[in-house]
Amino acid sequence: MTRLEFECLGMACRLLALGPAASRLEAGARWAREVERRLSRRDRSSELSRLHAAGGRWMPVSPELESLLRAALWAHEASGGLVHVGVSSPADGKARVPAPLPAVLEVAKRRAWLAPGARIELAGLARSWMADSLGGWLGDNAFADLGGSVCACGPGPEGAGWPVDVTGETVMVMDAGVATSGIGSRAPRWAVIDPRTGRPAESDLREVSVLAPTAIEAEVLARTALLVGSRRAPAVLADRALGWAFREM
After folding, report:
1. pLDDT over 90 at 11, yes or no
2. What does DSSP say about strands 193-194 and 162-166: parallel, antiparallel, or unpaired?
3. Which is nearest to 203 in space by CA: 189, 214, 212, 192?
4. pLDDT at 92 over 80
5. Which long-range contacts (CB under 8 A, 24 or more apart) does 187-190 make?
6. Is domain 1-51+126-249 given the CATH code 3.10.520.10 in the classification?
7. What is residue 185's predicted lDDT score, i.e. its pLDDT?
8. Domain ranges in the chain?
9. Does 186 score more than 60 pLDDT?
10. pTM of the predicted structure, to 2 decimals
11. Which residues, in sequence order, are CB contacts of 247 under 8 Å at separation 6+?
12. For residues 205 and 121, what is the distance between their CA atoms, to the nearest angstrom?
């Protein structure tokens, strides 16, 4: 088994593969860093910054950004609006409830439109989207972990799946995705903002980990469950998740 560790989106990432896919790990890491550059909000020349600057006009976009923007619109719909890339921590401390994402973002083939003044933050959703993309590209027996968002393809090194830590326990995962959403020290470096209030999320759940057919489905379900809380979360997850685990406050 070949293993490659690197940093992307400010997070520790790793790729593992067996067989011919092992030769593709370096190329996979380069692709991930290129996507990271495209999504930078600090670099005024990045593709995302250019989309922000073009507010109110249709702008050509790369296949990668088109795919991720479509994933963001799907996530908004699938979560009932709770997974919203148009919310971020307010710089001035004033909470703002965002408009529904389809009102400020439209996507067509190789082009996108963003409402004037609108800003989107894609890093949180990008980690699971990138994990799925890399897992599928690497081959039939490979593993992609982008900051805790996991895509596990194939039977793993010993035929029983790939080992993944889920709330402190090792779970063997095969041909599925895993993602965790949380509040606190073990959560990703960006705050989870509740689009219903525009403020950092409050929940009786500290952490939600979800197993789903893909990493991005797991990400959306985990964040939705976190925001609706422990009483409603099982109903949200029952029909769509393959499994889940909670850490309560």
Report:
1. yes
2. unpaired
3. 192
4. no
5. 188/11, 188/124, 188/127, 188/147, 188/148, 189/10, 189/11, 190/89, 190/121, 190/123, 190/124
6. yes
7. 46
8. 1-51+126-249, 52-123
9. no
10. 0.94
11. 167, 182, 205, 206, 207, 208
12. 24
